[in-house]
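Hey, I'm writing a tutorial for new members on how sequence and structure tokens pair up, and I'd like a real worked example in the thread rather than a made-up one. If someone can provide the structure for the chain below, I'll link this post from the tutorial.
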Amino acid sequence: MLMITENVKGKRYKELIDFLSRHCNCFAFVEDRQMMEIEEERLAYIHNLITYIEEHLIERKIQKEWETTRLVDDTAYVFYFNLNNATKQFLKDNSDSLFDWIRPELPEDLTFYQNDKCILATCSHEGFFLWIK
């Protein structure tokens, strides 16, 4: 596993998303409930954000931990999506950088999987990502 602190931006970000779409079949992002002022409003904002890819949503789970974070007292919503041409375009259209997946504009901690194996996991607010072999 490699921990990388350099942000991937612009053309390199688009190329990374293309690469991951060829080697992964699922991705996820996180909405930390402790960061929500009004949970219903934030969830409505996320619902609006994902309108065009909602049919590719696999599940929304409430979790205390994921690849880059463990919460002690709180929980977060983790949204899991199929990774395909539509969702790949969503990832490219909504950000120009791996670390731009951060509140308030976007959900956080973009993570990519091949089946159940994590391939890449970000921790946007801490400024690192993990590349897992």
